[in-house]
Write a structure and sequence with these properties.
The chain is an alpha+beta fold and 245 residues long. It has two domains: 15-78, Winged helix-like DNA-binding domain superfamily/Winged helix DNA-binding domain (Arc Repressor Mutant, subunit A, Orthogonal Bundle); 83-239, 3-Layer(aba) Sandwich (Chorismate lyase). It has seven helices and ten strands. The strands form three sheets. Strands 4-5-6-9-8-7 form a six-stranded antiparallel beta sheet. Strands 1-2 form a two-stranded antiparallel ribbon. Strands 3-10 form a two-stranded parallel ribbon. One of its GO terms (biological process) is negative regulation of DNA-templated transcription.
Length: 245
Amino acid sequence: MNERVALRHVSPIPLYYQLREALVEKIRREGLNVGDRIPTEAELQQIYGVSRTTVRQALADLVRDGIIRRQRGRGSVIARPPVQEMLPRLVGLTEEMRSRGRSVRSDVLECRWVEAPPRVRQALDIRPGEQVLLLVRRRYIDDDPVFYVTDYLPARLGLTPHDDFRGSLFDLMRIKGGVRVVRAEVTVEAVGAGEPEVQYLHVPPGFPLLRNVRTFFAADGSPVGYLEELCRSDRYHHFVVQKAE
């Protein structure tokens, strides 16, 4: 990728977008693989005859869309395709990623008993003053930190802070709590990264995240978990199929 390439400086299409599209086409044509490096900012300036501001804007677009990622010591490299979750399906992240040949692991950042906040009491149908197990985790896909997750679990599940929450929560709920999750209610919104996400997901302040709020239900219809999940939008997408009635 060392030849000079001319962009159209007199065009209604912004230079940064022309550069973005040129890089996408170059990646496709040369068959670059996950982890392959693309030229540095200085090299791109020289190759395409544009300013550093234009280069940085084009690269930021590619990072946001999950095409490249920044890697310390190497610069910009080709990223793995973002994970797509099919919302009509209810399956744990661990099981879903294993089926795709990808790995999942979790860091437990906090696990303790707390009094349930009002929104959690309502979702889990519990009394004021009742305690729930607060579980905060950072979850990785293929060693990339993608999720900052806060779970609230009712005491009736029988789980404790001493349990091993590094694996599948659904499996632990089934094996120890005797509960199989069969339904979830989900809301999704876009938010900007705050202090915890900047620290644990390695993103800049305000970076676009998906916020998923889920309430899980057992076969008897009782709520068995409430989750607030912040996901990197460049590494995780929702996929929804809609059909006309």
